[in-house]
Here is the input.
Amino acid sequence: MLKYPIVEQLRELKLHEMASCYEEQMQTKDILKYAFEDRLGMMLDRETITRSNRRTTSRLKKARLKVQACMEDINYSVERGIDRSLMMGFASCRWIHDHRGIILTGPTGAGKTWIACALAHKACLQGYSTIYKRVSNFLREIEASRELGTYDRLMNSLSKTDLVVLDDWGLEKLNQQQSLVILELLEDRYNHKSTIVASQIPPEKMHATIKDPTIADAIIDRLINNSYKINLQAENSMRGMSSGLTEENVNN
Here is the structure.
């Protein structure tokens, strides 16, 4: 029987899971009672599923999400103004396919970061490249990239990423240089990629988070247009909940 040369050839072709599955089949009694097509299908399924899982793991690692969250665990038992049907629609990631954005606003503790990360997690599972950025850290990263000469590479990478999460927008006013960076990012992504912005500042007041009014007009235009808006309400912080709810450890 030529099973060992077959295994070696599969491994040379980097079809490692198919090789392992084939070896297992050869050690299974009565394996020959299955049709060739069935046995080949088992091998292909093993290889396909394993590769898909690896790609998903890689996307989640690169996303660097602040919290581990998934949309199936969103807590709807607390009144926060979350439309369940809308969130279920987001789960299909059609909004990313259509290059739409999402603006999440609400007070501290309402769950903005958690929900943003849950949406980003779903995007990774659906095959979309994703990255999480806290705005203040992102601006420091930009400054460092200028000194290192990697600014263009960083911005090009972000422009190609399917979903960028910008968390904690508006904690400090953007100066002119920072505003131009954000404008460049949003201009590259507008109607081409998707962006989530999480902020305590409602959309109608975001203009005040940017010092230069002219640049502010351009940024807000690209930020608000073509984006879904979710305003979370919260009488009590989700952080303080201790009843075993899925968002009890939410960070924002």
In short: The beta strands are 101-105, 130-134, 163-169, 194-199, 227-231. Residues 36-63 form the longest helix (28 residues).
